[in-house]
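ARCHIVE CARD
CATEGORY: sequence design from structure
SOURCE FIELD: tokenized fold
FIELD CONTENT:
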């Protein structure tokens, strides 16, 4: 018996999927959730094999939810919006169903899942920080999981982001430091390039935090932040700063 979880903020959408799944004796819908927070809780409790996941939801959206999972189940996205299909498949989705879902399309998605499950195919964690902000062009927040709790960090709170091996360290105005499994390049691509600049191979800085640039040696500089932090600036980083600031 395979366990399925439905995470969707639309009750009718959840009801339709549940009704379609009644045709599969080998599938049991073990739980439903109306938002990402509840979905994360249910995922931890139920350990489903298949996850039906909406994208645009309150609190935590579908992509952000996937970022918080170390060992995600097979994911079938269900959404009314077609513009996130590329990100969905980059996040290792089995299928991407547009709502209102047609029974034939759900059947196709289920057959793909059954093939993967019966073959014992290894699930892959979704690439971190692929999630677009589904409300604007760039992410205006970053979601991290700390000690089992979800924290949402507004982009406006961030001073700088530092590369730390397989993680990034997000430094905020309040003095907090938050680790997220991602790469600096992914963070750079997800945040507004006018607000955040890659000033060094290991640092992404909020431009609004910079008070001045100081020479460090012949080839490099330091960015002095309002907080007093000093961030190394490479030659290419200085060029980006000059372009951004109109020097």
């Amino acid at each position: 018996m395979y366990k399925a979880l439905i995470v969707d903020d639309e009750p009718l959408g959840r009801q339709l999927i549940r009704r379609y799944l009644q045709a599969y004796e080998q599938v049991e819908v073990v739980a439903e959730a109306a938002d990402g927070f509840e979905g994360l809780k249910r995922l931890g409790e139920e350990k489903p094999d298949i996850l039906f996941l909406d994208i645009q939801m309150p609190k935590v959206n579908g992509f952000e939810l996937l970022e918080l999972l170390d060992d995600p189940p097979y994911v079938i996205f269900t959404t009314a919006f077609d513009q996130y299909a590329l990100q969905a498949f980059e996040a290792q989705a089995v299928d991407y169903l547009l709502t209102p879902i047609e029974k034939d399309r759900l059947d196709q998605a289920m057959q793909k899942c059954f093939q993967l499950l019966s073959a014992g195919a290894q699930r892959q964690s979704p690439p971190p920080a692929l999630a677009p902000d589904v409300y604007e062009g760039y992410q205006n927040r970053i979601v991290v999981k700390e000690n089992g709790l979800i924290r949402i960090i507004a982009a406006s709170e961030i001073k700088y982001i530092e590369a730390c091996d397989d993680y990034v360290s997000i430094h905020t105005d309040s003095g907090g430091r938050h680790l997220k499994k991602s790469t600096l390049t992914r963070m750079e691509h997800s945040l507004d390039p006018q607000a955040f600049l890659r000033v060094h191979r290991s640092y992404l800085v909020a431009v609004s935090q910079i008070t001045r640039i100081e020479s460090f040696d012949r080839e490099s500089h330091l960015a002095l932040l309002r907080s007093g932090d000093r961030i190394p600036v490479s030659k290419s980083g200085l060029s980006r700063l000059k372009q951004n600031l109109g020097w």
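CARD ANNOTATION: The chain has two domains: 2-119, 141-245. Residues 103-119 form the longest helix (17 residues).
SHELF: design records, drawer C
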